[in-house]
Fold:
Amino acid sequence: MKIIFDCDPGLDDGIALLTAFSYKGFDIKAVTTAFGCSTLENTTRNALRLMDFLGRKDVKVAMGAFQSMLGKTDIAPYVHGEDGFKNINLPETDIKPYTKNAAETIYETAMESEEKITIVATGPLTNIGTALKKYPELKDKIEKVSIMGGAVGIGNKSPVAEANISNDPEAARILFESGIPVIMSGLNMTFNALVYDDEIEEIAALGNKEAKLGGDFLRAHREFYRKQNFAGDPPHDICAVAQLIKPEIFETVHCHVDVETKGEFTRGETVADLKNKFGKEKNAFVAVGVDRKKFIEFIKERLSAYKEG
Ligand code: BDR
Ligand code: CA
Structure:
């Protein structure tokens, strides 16, 4: 499967990238970055440091949006620390970002590929929205987009809006209205995909440097959720990767999703029509359940794979 990984690393993006790069069935062509967990400068630096750590200097890392399509920006140092990789000790790198920006890179990579591209998106959808708006023919080259984003009936930026969608509702709307199938792993599911403290330590102790780093990401992410009285850590972004490798971990409903861009109280809400009340064309597979044990097995399996080289 040819992949572009669009992200805002970010602690949970960090471990999601580790799980994705461990999978031989993925041919990851580019990593594209956006603001979100931290500033664009920080998220790009983090993606570059991670590629160096993984020995993947061959992968294009393209800088994307520093703000939303309407020019707004918001970051989350209270979750991901000042640099986006809170408390994580990753060496600096001399790898430079790719010469083209994220939207151009998504377009170029998709057009160059004979087979259709699959996108994993774990940040605000600005790069994808911008690319689809600028290059209308791009949609025919994209097989599907697996996003961590949105929620059914809950939120973390507002009572009903999740951060990645809330950071750029217009961009999210472009994607959901594009006709490209979207797999949506939202907070209603990811808040149940918890990694407990003893499991974090088991992952960290799997015996290779990638798993050790994965444990560091989970521990650092857990700090915020411990304060929120969660029983474990929800590493949201891993779900968008797992949906493509082990979809049986999740229960999904094929339905129509609208993105609210105008609501006085509901801007950024993903309105999932689970019961088909509007009768509109189905554009998304919305996750409504997760087999938590299988999710933990998935993380362990992926991070153990690095042992095989
Ligand atoms: C999402 O927002 C980001 O902070 C996380 O990395 C995740 O993608 C959770 O709402
Ligand atoms: Ca993210």
About this structure: The longest helix spans residues 209-227. The chain has one domain: 2-306.
